[in-house]
Amino acid sequence: MNENSLQDKKVVLGVTGSIAAYKAADLVRRLREKGADVRVVMTKAACEFITPLTLQTLSGHPVAIELLDADQEAAMGHIKLARWADWILIAPATADTIARLASGRADDLLTALCSASESPLAIAPAMNNKMWQNESTQNNIRQLRSQSAQILGPASGDQACGEQGEGRLLEPNDIVSALALLVVPARLQGKHVVITAGPTYEPIDPVRFIGNRSSGKMGFAMAVAAAEAGAGVTLISGPVHLSTPTNVNRVDVETAQQMHDEVIKHIDNCDLFIACAAVADFRPQQLELNKIKKMEKDQLPLILTPTLDIVSAVTGGDKQPFVVGFAAETTSVETYAKDKLKRKKLDMIAANQVGEGRGFAVDENELQVFWAEGSKMFPMAPKNQLARDLMTLIIERYNAKDTT
User: Fold this and answer.
1) pLDDT at residue 364 greater than cutoff 90
2) With 70 as the cut, is the pLDDT of residue 68 above it?
3) Same domain, 246 and 387
4) What percent of the chain has pLDDT over 70?
5) CB 43 within 8 A of CB 97
6) pLDDT digits over 187-210, tens only?
7) By the 8 A CB rule, do 7 and 34 touch?
C-alpha cells in the first residue's frame, strides 16, 4: 500500500443503518490519520446507532442527513458534495442501501449524492450472513461491480445476531488499507498530462470513412485517473460518445492528421504523454469530393497511404516527455509490445489482446505493461479501476526516471 495515497484526498463517508455503524467513528479517525479530508453523510437509520455529533466532532465538519434540508439544498448541498468528493465510501453498507443503489434510487441524501457524482464509489457491506448470501443481494453486488463500484469485503466471523458467517464489516484499518490500494496517489500536481483517446476516421468521400472499433473508454478513464492525481489534463479525442471528465480540457478531432497536429501543439509544455488512441495507420490516398455512387462502380479499389506516426513524432522531438504507448494486438501480444517499446523509444507500453468481446467497446479489460527494466500484469478489471492502477504505476516509473 502506498501510505501517502490518501493524503489530501476528499472522501465522502456514507454511514447506513447497521449495528456496525459504531465503527464509523474509528474509520473517520483512521482516514484522517492518512491525510484524507472526510465529510460524513448519514441515513436516518444510521442515526439510531451512532449520533451525528460524534462523527461531526471526529471529522471536523457538519454531518449531512436530510435530502430536503432547506439550508443545505438552497445551495444544492448534495450536488456540491458530489462534485467535491474524490471518492465516496459507504461503510457500513446495508443490504437495503446496496439494493437501492443497484436499482438507481435517489430518494435520500446518500443515494442522490451517489447518483449525481462522477466520483468512484467504494462499498463495504455489513449484514447478516443469510442476507449476504441471498441471490438478490448477490445480483445487486454484481450490478454495482458492473458499474465500476469497488466492493470492500465483507469479512467472515461472529455477527451481532449471534450467528457466524460472511457479512461482517471489514475492520476500519482494513477498509482504509483497501481504499488506499484503489486510490491514485496525488503526485502529479503542477504536471501537464496529454492523453489521446478513441479512434480516428479517415474519409473516403464526404459520407464514408475508414475507422476502427475503439470506444475511447480506456483513454477517458486514464484522463480521469490523471486528474485524480492532481495533473492538468489535456484529452485529445477522436469521435466518441462519452462525456468530458471533470477538470479535463478536451479537444475533439476526427482524423489522424488532426490528432497529430493537436498533440504537437500541446507537447511543448507536456510532462507525460499517454498515447491511448487507436490511430489509423493508413488513410485513403485520394479523397473523393462527392459521394461515390454504387451504380457507377462495380468495384472500388482503395489506395492507402500511411498516416503520420504521432508517438514517433513525440519521442523524436527536442523536448521528450515521459511517453506511454498502447498496443492492441490479436496475437503475440508480448512480442509485438516489446518490439514497439524499443522501436518507438517509449518509456512504457500497455498492451492488451483485442478480438471478439475483448478490448474494444467493453467495460472491462486486462493489460500487460512493459518497460526497459521490468513488466507487470493487470488482470481483468473495470476500465475505470484498471486506469487508476495503471496511472499509479506510471507515476512510480515517472518519478523513478525523474530522480535518476
Assistant:
1) no
2) no
3) yes
4) 93
5) yes
6) 898 999 999 999 999 999 899 999
7) yes
Domain final residue, candidates 136, 159, 182: 182
Nearest-CA neighbor of 324 among 354, 379, 367? 367
The residue segments making up the domain with residue 93 are: 10-182
Q: What is the pLDDT of residue 347?
A: 96
DSSP assignments along 181-230, one per residue: HHSPPS--TT-EEEEEESB--EESSSS-EE-----SHHHHHHHHHHHHTT
Active site residues: 161
Tell me if 2 is assigned to some domain: no
| pTM, 2 dp | 0.81
Which of 124, 150, 182 lies at the terminal end of a domain, its last residue? Answer: 182
Residue with cell 458499474: 147
All cell numbers assigned to 184? 491514485
Residues 261 and 160 placed together within one structural domain of the fold: no
Residue whose grid cell is 507515476: 395
Count how many domains the chain has: 2
User: How much is the pLDDT for 147?
Assistant: 85
DSSP assignment of 280-295 equals -SEEESS--SSPPPGG
Helix (H, G, I), strand (E, B) or coil at 344: coil
In a domain, residue 130? The reply is yes
Where does residue 135 rank: exposed (0-12), middle (13-18), buried (19+ CB within 10 A)? Answer: exposed
pLDDT of residue 297: 65
Cα–Cα distances (Å) from 160 to 20, 127, 166, in that order, read: 9, 9, 12
Instruction: List for the chain the helix, strand, coil content (%; round to 5).
Output: 35, 25, 40
If pLDDT is split at 50, 70 and 90, which confidence band does 186 have? confident
Distances from the Cα of 145 to the Cαs of 28, 152, 172, 304, 383, in angstroms? 25, 11, 22, 43, 12
Residues 250 and 290 occupy one common structural domain: yes
DSSP element (H, E) containing 58: helix 52-59
Q: What is the pLDDT of residues 228-263, one digit of tens each?
A: 899 999 999 999 999 898 889 999 999 999 999 999
Residues 157 and 261 in one domain: no
